[in-house]
């Protein structure tokens, strides 16, 4: 996996002015920014990505349509646009992205991997059919469109919820509400 330089944030999400490699930030639990983009269709479906089997966190679980680390000095929207292009082969413009929030996430996977992130979260309408997307083989195992109502139901079913990355309940609620208000 690619190690890259990222900007280090303080516990409130403010830039500290220092940069570190992503691997070191994860090892030491330093806060940094990520871009999350949830794609949805006008007919009320949500695009889910199944994480690659070689991911060090949550391999093969279903997650946000597209996500990635914000590179050092990179504008968050540009990072989002770049990740969408890399992971699913889709070109979007800045005005297609609608920011719905910034979510602080602290997940300690083990002593050598602490993911302390601020997820800058966007929704974006998917205007092409699923078969037009080109998944990045190294990162993405699969893609699926799921009706929002089914997604909502699965997240509240303890057994079915296990196939999804365990984001905070409030995070998922905000995503679903954000998409609904744009349908």
Verbal overview:
With 183 residues, this protein is of the alpha+beta class. The chain is built from 4 helices and 9 strands. It has helices at residues 22-28, 76-88, 148-156, 169-180, and strands at residues 5-9, 15-21, 32-40, 45-51, 62-63, 66-69, 98-110, 113-125, 140-147. The strands form 3 sheets. A 4-stranded mixed beta sheet has the order 6-3-8-7, with helices on both faces. Strands 5-4-9 form a 3-stranded antiparallel beta sheet. It has a two-stranded antiparallel sheet with strand order 1-2. A hairpin with a 2-residue loop joins strand 7 (98-110) and strand 8 (113-125). The termini are far apart.
Topology:
Blueprint: E1 5-9, E2 15-21, H1 22-28, E3 32-40, E4 45-51, E5 62-63, E6 66-69, H2 76-88, E7 98-110, E8 113-125, E9 140-147, H3 148-156, H4 169-180
* Spatial strand arrangement across the major sheet: 6-3-8-7
Low-confidence stretches: none
What is the total tally of β strands? 9
Helix residue percentage: 10-25%
Rg over CA atoms, rounded to whole Å, is: 16 Å
Provide keyphrases for this structure.
183 residues; alpha+beta; four-stranded mixed beta sheet; three-stranded antiparallel beta sheet; 22% helix
Compact summary:
The protein has four helices and nine strands. It is of the alpha+beta class and 183 residues long. It is globular and about 45 Å long.
